[in-house]
Amino acid sequence: MLARPVPVDVIALLPDDAPLMFVWRGRRFAITRGDGPEHLHGEWWRDGGIEGEQPYTVRDYYQVETATGGCYWLFRLGDGVNPSTGPMRWLIHGAFA
After folding, report:
1. Distance (Å, rounded) from C-alpha 93 to C-alpha 5?
2. Count of CB atoms within 10 A of residue 22's CB?
3. pLDDT by residue (tens digit) across 40-67?
4. What global pTM score does this model have?
5. Strands, DSSP E only, in the chain?
6. 26 conformational bin, left if phi > 0, alpha if psi -120 to 50, beta if neither
7. Which of 9, 37, 65, 68 is deepest in the core (most CB within 10 A)?
8. Are 77 and 91 in contact (CB under 8 A)?
9. In whole angstroms, how large is the CA radius of gyration of the chain?
10. Nearest Cα to 90, choosing from 3, 1, 2, 24?
């Protein structure tokens, strides 16, 4: 798990389909499998989180597997429908060993 989530560029169908592709550290990752979303509502990420002064109410987490065999944990700020839940921005939160 990364100490702090990092923004990534993602191609995904909204609101609930898993991402199809993401770009992280200048590399493009094609996603072959995705599990999610896991809708997390709550406050556990507020303290020192990336949301800063405006914490959002929803994070939608996905576990994805890439064409090269990597497994990653991505999330979207927001529910994919309602802008008041977040900006629909994507971040990576970690990688699986």
Report:
1. 5
2. 23
3. 876 655 555 555 555 667 889 999 999 9
4. 0.84
5. 6-7, 9-11, 21-24, 27-41, 58-66, 71-77, 90-96
6. left
7. 37
8. yes
9. 13
10. 24
Burial of 66 (0-12, 13-18, 19+ CB in 10 A): middle
Question: Could you tell me if 35 and 43 are in contact, meaning their C-beta atoms sit under 8 angstroms apart?
Answer: no
CA angle 30, 96, 16 (to 5 degrees): 55
One-letter amino acid for residue 1 of the chain = M
As a whole number of angstroms, the distance between CA 92 and CA 75 comes to: 6
- 40 pairs with which residues across the strands? 59
Count CA within 13 A, CB hemisphere, residue 57: 7
First to last CA, the chain: 10
What is the token pair recorded at 1? 């798990």
